[in-house]
């Protein structure tokens, strides 16, 4: 896979009046062309700073970023503006020009790029069709819903044929249904135009929905990076586990014995695995967390079960689950165990 | 009570007063924007969180604006007599008053512009930066364009204030309605003329306010 974005040991320190904040601490990351890379972390993890370093809206304190092997730190302001035309960005609060109508908003980046007005209008209309808002061309942003505003922002971002699209919490201000629609629009853009997408989010669900890769950021450091499949099935760092299990370590939920995590990847969603297991073993289990969904008839997601204390039935259940090719991971010492909480399958 | 007003020449004088007051107000405000608009933009751009932070430039402008705004207008007019002579050829009359009014209003206008531009959503400015927009594009097409309504409201305030100042300039022979009010109402105790001049001033301020509000409503796209 060809690398399109390369972050090299990027650190960023903000110096305030009487303190300084290390937002990023030596982050190195390579994003492949055509990937949809999710960057996830708790608030304050440095996600927004990281994405702003990718187009040098924030200049790293040390380290640098390469876009298609061009070192951004070596560019003149004019060259940097040129690169920014290839790296578009959308935002949590859409950031549209409120005094311009939808069509003129989409034309704006082309105005900056010196595109002729007639050509710009023509392309803007095409782009509004791509995002499904052709009938709103003459509306003003204040007349649109959040989802529609983000669609306008996406059309605007595509105006100058970017190679990369950066999304800074682009769905965080939207309701779940609209979030899904916007994510699928981004996926469509990725597939149809081959645009590499970087998505900043604090929601694992967003990453699972469309990302191919995920980087987990924790207190300014890169905790884990890999394909979504891999990180989701075998989270290694504590930060990754927190996000995947969606549980705060302080919650004593899994303090009790015999907790197992089941990862669904290839089983049919029509088979009621857990119910069958309970029937077959004639012992109830406690479902502590269940988060699965049906993608094209295949179950995807995870469950955390608390097996019975009785060793024999627990062993039978584990056997039953593994027989059905489910990935089962025992979670004996996850709690309070920190990095040592890693467990074997 | 209004017997003085029955004289044709008084009515003509009042009509001329309105014209002269408008002449002074409009031209002074216009020139005040010629000076104050760039200063207001510079204050925003060079401030700590601006697009081109320049601590020294910002401090100099900030202090200069405060100093001029602190000087009482009457004193400022007296201080500016040499400049009025230089530009208008004399130290009294409407044209000379425009010089003083312009300089008095410019720092006020700069602050109005500054506060309007600070209201512009920083996210929108950031979006323009992310598209590769240069400084002038951002100032012109983002900051000024997005602050349009607030700038119009500010200009309405500026016009009203300058109109008030122009009346004060009457005290030292500025001309216009304020001049008439002081000469006839204050020096000659012709209260009727004073009342009518004040009423005319009120009407002018009302008219400006009405026009400004109407225009800003008509142009605002945020609904």
Description:
The complex is a heterodimer of chains A (345) and B (223). Helix content of chain A is 33%, strand content 28%. Chain A has 345 residues and is α/β, with parallel strands linked by helices. A 6-stranded mixed β-sheet of chain A has the order 6-7-8-3-9-10, sandwiched between helices. In chain A, a hairpin with a 2-residue loop joins strand 9 and strand 10 (221-227). In chain A, helix 3 runs parallel beside helix 5 (146-158) and helix 5 runs parallel beside helix 6 (176-193). The longest helix of chain A has 18 residues, at 176-193. Chain A is globular, with a radius of gyration of 23 Å. Chain B has a single domain (8-219), classed as MetI-like fold. Chain B starts with 7 loop residues before the first helix and ends with a helix. Chains A and B meet through helix 2, strand 6 and helix 3 of A and helix 6 and helix 7 of B.
Sequence-ordered SSE layout with sheet pairings:
The complex is a heterodimer of chains A (345) and B (223).
Chain A: E1 3-15, E2 20-32, E3 36-40, H1 47-54, E4 62-67, E5 70-71, H2 77-84, E6 87-91, H3 102-112, H4 117-130, H5 146-158, E7 164-168, H6 176-193, E8 196-201, H7 204-210, E9 213-218, E10 221-227, H8 228-233, H9 238-245, E11 259-264, H10 273-281, E12 286-295, E13 298-306, H11 311-323, E14 327-330
Parallel strand pairs in A: 3-8, 3-9, 6-7, 7-8
Antiparallel strand pairs in A: 1-2, 1-4, 4-5, 9-10, 11-13, 11-14, 12-13
Helix pairs in contact in A: 3-4, 3-5, 4-5, 5-6, 10-11
Chain B: H1 8-46, H2 55-70, H3 73-79, H4 81-88, H5 94-118, H6 122-130, H7 135-146, H8 148-168, H9 177-187, H10 191-219
In short:
The complex is a heterodimer of chains A (345) and B (223). Chain A is an alpha/beta fold and 345 residues long. Chain A has helices spanning 47-54, 77-84, 102-112, 117-130, 146-158, 176-193, 204-210, 228-233, 238-245, 273-281, 311-323, and strands at 3-15, 20-32, 36-40, 62-67, 70-71, 87-91, 164-168, 196-201, 213-218, 221-227, 259-264, 286-295, 298-306, 327-330.
């Amino acid at each position: 896979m060809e690398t399109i974005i390369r972050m090299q040991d990027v650190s960023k320190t903000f110096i305030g009046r009487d303190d300084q904040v290390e937002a990023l601490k030596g982050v190195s990351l390579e994003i492949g062309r055509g990937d949809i890379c999710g960057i996830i972390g708790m608030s304050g993890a440095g996600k927004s700073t990281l994405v702003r370093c990718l187009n040098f809206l924030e200049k790293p304190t040390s380290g640098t970023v390469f876009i298609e092997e061009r070192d951004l730190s070596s560019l003149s302001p004019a060259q940097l503006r040129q690169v920014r035309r290839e790296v578009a960005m959308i935002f949590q609060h859409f950031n549209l020009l409120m005094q311009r109508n939808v069509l003129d908003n989409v034309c704006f980046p082309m105005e900056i790029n010196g595109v002729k007005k007639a050509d710009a209008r023509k392309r803007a209309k095409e782009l509004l069709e791509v995002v499904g808002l052709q009938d709103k061309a003459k509306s003003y942003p204040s007349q649109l819903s959040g989802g529609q505003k983000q669609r306008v922002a996406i059309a605007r971002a595509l105006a100058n044929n970017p190679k990369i699209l950066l999304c800074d919490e682009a769905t965080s201000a939207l309701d779940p249904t609209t979030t899904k629609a916007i994510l699928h629009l981004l996926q469509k853009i990725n597939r149809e135009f081959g645009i590499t997408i970087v998505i900043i989010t604090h929601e694992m669900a967003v990453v699972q929905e469309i990302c191919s890769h995920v980087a987990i950021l924790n207190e300014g450091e890169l905790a884990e990076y890999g394909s979504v499949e891999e990180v989701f099935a075998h989270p290694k760092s504590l930060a990754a586990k927190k996000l995947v299990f969606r549980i705060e370590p302080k919650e004593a939920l899994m303090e009790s014995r015999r907790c197992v995590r089941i990862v669904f990847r290839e089983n049919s969603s029509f088979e009621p695995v857990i119910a069958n297991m309970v029937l077959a073993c004639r012992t109830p289990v406690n479902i502590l967390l269940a988060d699965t969904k049906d993608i094209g008839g295949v179950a995807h997601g995870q469950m955390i079960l608390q097996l019975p204390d009785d060793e024999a039935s627990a062993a039978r259940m584990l056997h039953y689950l593994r027989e059905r090719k489910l990935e089962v991971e025992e979670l004996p010492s996850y709690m309070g165990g920190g990095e040592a909480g890693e467990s074997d399958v | 009570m209004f017997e003085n007003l029955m004289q044709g020449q008084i009515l003509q004088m009042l009509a001329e007063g309105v014209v002269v007051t408008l002449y002074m107000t409009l031209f002074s405000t216009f020139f005040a924007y010629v000076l104050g608009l760039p200063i207001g933009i510079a204050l925003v751009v060079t401030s700590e969180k601006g697009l081109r932070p320049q601590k020294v430039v910002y401090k100099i402008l900030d202090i200069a604006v405060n100093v001029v705004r602190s000087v009482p207008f009457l004193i400022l007019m007296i201080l500016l007599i040499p400049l009025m002579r230089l530009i208008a050829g004399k130290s009294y009359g409407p044209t000379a008053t425009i010089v003083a009014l312009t300089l008095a209003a410019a720092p006020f206008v700069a602050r109005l512009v500054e506060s309007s531009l600070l209201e512009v959503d920083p996210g929108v400015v950031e979006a323009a930066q992310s598209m590769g927009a240069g400084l002038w594009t951002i100032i012109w097409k983002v900051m000024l364009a997005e602050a349009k309504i607030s700038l119009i409201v500010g200009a309405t305030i500026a016009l009203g204030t300058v109109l008030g100042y122009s009346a004060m300039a009457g005290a030292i022979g500025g001309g216009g309605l304020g001049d008439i009010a002081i000469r006839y109402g204050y020096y000659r105790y012709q209260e009727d003329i004073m009342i009518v001049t004040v009423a005319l001033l009120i009407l002018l301020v009302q008219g400006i306010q009405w026009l400004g509000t109407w225009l800003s409503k008509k142009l605002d796209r945020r609904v």
